[in-house]
Amino acid sequence: MNDYPMLGFIVRWGKLIASLLALAVATAGLWCAWSGGHAIWAVAGIGGAAVGYGLALSYVELVKLITDMLVPK
Fold it and tell me: pLDDT tens across 28-49, in order?
């Protein structure tokens, strides 16, 4: 993996980064709803966090698949 540092980074830290990004999006939605916006921002933030987490996690799994199959060990 020394030849592909970003693949190694994504394999190692991808799930954590996906979780932190989803938490940030959900928190932003809740903050917007709490700070005088409408409750729809909370729903949109939580929904966006769920969709974003699923997309990010699928990308991490795809990178893991690529590294397992194509990168020589």
Answer: 999 999 998 889 999 999 999 9
CA angle 34, 16, 40 (to 5 degrees): 25
> Largest Cα–Cα distance in the chain?
54
Specify the pTM. Answer: 0.85
Amino acid of residue 14: G
* Cβ 7 vs Cβ 64: under 8 Å: no
Separation between Cα atoms, residue 46 and residue 53, nearest integer Å? 10
What is the residue range of 47's domain? Answer: 13-70
Residue 71 confidence class, pLDDT cut points 50, 70, 90: confident
Please count the structural domains in the chain. 1
CB atoms within 10 A of CB 9: 13
